[in-house]
Specification:
By secondary structure, the chain is α+β, with helices and mostly antiparallel strands. The chain has a single domain (about 5-160), classed as Lipocalin, CATH 2.40.128.280. The chain has helices spanning about 5-15, 20-25, 100-110, 110-125, and strands at about 25-35, 40-45, 50-65, 65-80, 85-95, 130-140, 145, 155-160. The protein has an 8-stranded antiparallel barrel with strand order 1-2-3-4-5-6-7-8. A hairpin with a 4-residue loop joins strand 2 and strand 3 (about 50-65). The protein starts with a helix and ends in a 13-residue tail after the last strand. This is DUF306 domain-containing protein. It comes from Cardiobacterium valvarum F0432. Keywords: Signal.
Length: about 170
């Protein structure tokens, strides 16, 4: 049994090794799960050839009484080396996006409101220079599966066709 995991790693390594920086360029729809804290991030991320990326998305915290919902916008830089995608924050903004029913519940339940304020503070605490490293588990031109240092999975699907390379003038 102890040899099974190295064997599986060896079999899946070609998928991660096949990913190039050029393969990342373009628009991706991504979903990251955080099971330990009952949270999820869904975003649309654009990887640019100049090493920058932008994302717009929604962060959800699943609580007993419903969903705490936030919208996010991030501007970041990215590098890909040895099957690890490193994304570093340049600028991050977050706004509350609670449906009326959830806002009413927050107004009526101080303990839940205190928890929400704490989560909002954590999200607003993302600052320039914060970085995450994502190990690429499987990749092709249409799908990308990764995980962070705590094994939280990120699954991405290409949201549009990769832009064609520009042709030289006169050809």
């Amino acid at each position: 049994m102890r040899f099974l995991f190295p064997l599986l790693a060896a079999l899946t390594a070609p998928f991660a090794a096949a990913l190039s920086e050029a393969d990342l360029l373009g628009r991706w729809s991504c979903s990251t799960s955080y099971p330990e804290i009952n949270a999820k991030i869904d975003d649309v991320r654009i990887f640019n050839a100049d090493g920058t990326t932008t994302s717009d998305g929604t962060t959800l915290f699943f609580i007993r009484d419903g969903l705490l919902q936030y919208t996010t916008h991030n501007e970041e830089t990215w590098t890909l080396k040895d099957g690890v995608l490193r994304v570093e924050t340049v600028k991050s903004t977050v706004e509350r996006a609670m449906p009326p029913r959830i806002q009413k519940m927050l107004d009526e339940k101080p303990d839940v409101a205190a928890f929400e304020a704490k989560m909002f503070g954590v999200l607003r605490g993302v600052k320039a220079g914060d970085a995450v490293s994502l190990t690429v588990d499987k990749a092709d031109k249409q799908q990308l599966n990764m995980h962070d240092e705590r094994d939280n999975p990120t699954e991405c699907t290409r949201a549009e066709a990769k832009p064609a390379a520009k042709q030289q003038k006169g050809k």
